[in-house]
Amino acid sequence: MNIDKEEFQRQYLDKVAKLHGKPLEETSDGERYQALSSLIRDYIGQRWLLSRRRQRQGKQVYYLSIEFLLGRLTDMYLINLGLRDTVAAAFFDLGVDLAAILESEEDPGLGNGGLGRLAACYLDSMAAESLPGHGCGLRYRYGFFEQDFVNGRQIEVPDDWLKTGFIYEFRRSDEAVEIRFGGTVTPELNGKLRYRHENYESVLAVPYDVPVVGHLNDTVNTLRLWSAEPHRTDFVCSATNRNDCLKTIEYKNDVEAITSVLYPDDSTRDGRVLRLKQHYFLTSASLQAILADLARRDIPLTRLSDHVAVHINDTHPALAVPELMRLLIDEHGMGWDEAWSLTVATISYTNHTIMPEALETWPVDLFQALLPRIFVIVNEINERFCRELWQRYPGDWDHIRAMAVIADGTIRMAHLAIAGSHSVNGVAQLHTRILKERVMSDFHQFYPDKFNNKTNGVTHRRFLIKANPQLAALLGETVGEQWVQYPCDLLGLLPHAADPAFQDKLAAIRRWHKSKLAAQILDATGVRIDPDSIFDTHVKRIHGYKRQTLNAFHIMHLYNRLKADPGMDLTPRTFIFGGKAAPAYRLAKLTIRFINALADKINRDKTINDKIKVVFLENYNVSLLEKLLPATDVSEQIPTASREACGTGNMKFIMNGSVIIGTLDGGNIEIRNAVGEDNIITFGLTADEVLNIYERGGYNPWDIYCGDERVKTVLDQLVNGFLPGGPDEYRPIFDSFLHHGDHFLVLKDFAAYVDAQKELERRYRDRRHWLSMSVRNIAHSGKFSGDRTFTEYAVDIWRLRPEAPVRCYCSADEDFARAEGGCTLSRRPALQATLSNATYN
Ligand code: 26Y
């Protein structure tokens, strides 16, 4: 966007006056933020309108997701509009602290983890690539909870992110649609079989649109968030009729509950009903809007799949399959077969996890009562699908039952998603292989062509340019500014990997961020950490398979060694944790309590000369991650191999030059292939070894407890009063390892992890060597940009021709040559020259 500093200042001061009626000097940071965001909203509005007009003709992608973990938007808008430098300079002149203003923004946390953040990354990448791709989600009244610690325990506080309003949303009441729950359906034969749906509860879905601005281009896409509102016509409340009034209030509360919180507690039947309501509400509203838009564009429904791609982010929106069938058949009079082939051709599905508890199923009775017409359709899909299976496997009932959509009184959403879509993808090579060979092997045999891999990617604009502007500038000076558009240009850093002058600049940037983070941590926790210690960061959701306990056990072991030998030669280290535990996940919450207690014990101990410090930062979210990325030396990516579908934190950290200590799982494997095995520290069981143990047994954690003194000491310390909080407090953790089988194989990997940590420290002590590793991680991170992933989705799955030619996402060993865009190494001659001169690793 073209606007100079003086003009911006003029417009900004004008906005301050109009909004607040007082001079800038008298405004608070919050008021200054309001004025800035309101001005940005004005800028975007006009571009949005033009972009929508331009995009009308092309094929549109709709990415349906129950989570969008957006993070703060203002700074990203400035970067993508090309205004950040101008605005920073303008504020500097006005004597205003831009960073402080930006801290006033709420962090919209409409998601809980990787899947939700990935959805947000892809929105950014789609707009950057000028692809007409839009998000469809829910406008939760409360975000994923805010985490407070009280005596080291996680307390969940409602995240009231809308309390002061959300400036970047545009309510579109005129595009509201009706959603129907419950009631009865009766078949009617009137030439064609039709269903009459009566006595249902009607809910209004009102869209709130959030603009998604492309990076330095004209594209502005839309994230549409649906909000549940009562139907005005159902609103009867008069003083003379108390019963009606109570019913009305009950109805209003029921309706508003639909978009009240993400993942309502599903331990009760009511809670499960609410979750299913959310899923249907999201899919039905989105599909109704998509078909309405198609009609506005004068495109016949029979051409639906040529003009629309609907992508479902895991199975939460898998009701898109029967709902699209319903709309085509009931609302538009189409026959089953035509509706089915259009549905399959339109919908594609990404699986994000093989954890059994996340493979969704619904009890038939609950489903049928809430969605009677959808149930009839799912039943029909199941019957037809089972007939097909019968043709292929005649008489093999076990096989058919294993693959059916409905079996044993439950509806299996993954099966519905696979049968009803034309593409099923995993999110890393290993994950896709496990899906094909194990978790979904029956389906892979039946539909070999549907399965494909799309290794995740993340937006380098947020996680590098926004989070670490100093590093971004250094990269620009070194490899040329084009790396922003072509992240694979970062390979041009390789010739500088061993250059002391370049390394020193990188080190100075990291040191600056470490000291800033240290000050913030002191402020937030009262713990003083040394900016010259190794910053070792483990941030992600708290879950057994992510193995925060493995990290904690290693810390305890280090501490024990230090106590035994206070003069031990150890490079000072700061262990940083962050992450939320699902409110109902008892053991994960106890893990937080345990690590906080450990931190307390270690940080207070004056005898270890501050050699190790441990901090667990409260309320981990996107904004906190952005502060940690540029200050982290070591990134912990240590899940039980085979359990982490991909992981995306790993990618964000290497972009900032952190070195990973990790297991051979998910995206770590591809990162190792890209950066080279000398530039990542890997350890532990492989996925095949883990899966063998899961299938055949043969692992007894007591063997390790009894055979490895270090493990015995650490585990005993959980229950012998070593930790503040009492000896029984942490017994469930102790029991989970020794009495419940150590399901995630923490003890089994302990020795390998301790060795890997020693190796890490050895390498860190050679400063030049460590920095060269760091540079090589950044150099190879371009491949993990979401722009690369999205181009693959666009070409392979959605068959979408991008407005702009497909860009090149090459790495040293691989050339993502794409048929449609003709993306080859030869399109980047400068890069090719650099590559042929460079030595890899
Ligand atoms: C139980 C059900 C309601 C449910 C709720 C949340 C099921 C799944 C999820 C969330 C899954 C998730 O976030 N998966 C993560 O997706 C990332 C993006 O693909 C992966 O990088 C990461 O490995 C995976 O754990």
From TrEMBL:
EC number(s) given by UniProt: 2.4.1.1
Keywords linked to the UniProt accession: Carbohydrate metabolism, Glycosyltransferase, Pyridoxal phosphate, Transferase
Cited function: Allosteric enzyme that catalyzes the rate-limiting step in glycogen catabolism, the phosphorolytic cleavage of glycogen to produce glucose-1-phosphate, and plays a central role in maintaining cellular and organismal glucose homeostasis. Phosphorylase is an important allosteric enzyme in carbohydrate metabolism. Enzymes from different sources differ in their regulatory mechanisms and in their natural substrates. However, all known phosphorylases share catalytic and structural properties.
Protein name per UniProt: Alpha-1,4 glucan phosphorylase
Catalytic activity: [(1->4)-alpha-D-glucosyl](n) + phosphate = [(1->4)-alpha-D-glucosyl](n-1) + alpha-D-glucose 1-phosphate
Top EC class for this record: transferase
UniProt record similarity statement: Belongs to the glycogen phosphorylase family.
InterPro entries, per database record: Glycg_phsphrylas, Glyco_trans_35, Pyridoxal_P_attach_site
Cofactor(s) needed: pyridoxal 5'-phosphate
GO molecular function: 1,4-alpha-oligoglucan phosphorylase activity
Lineage summary: Bacteria, Bacillati, Bacillota, Negativicutes, Acetonemataceae
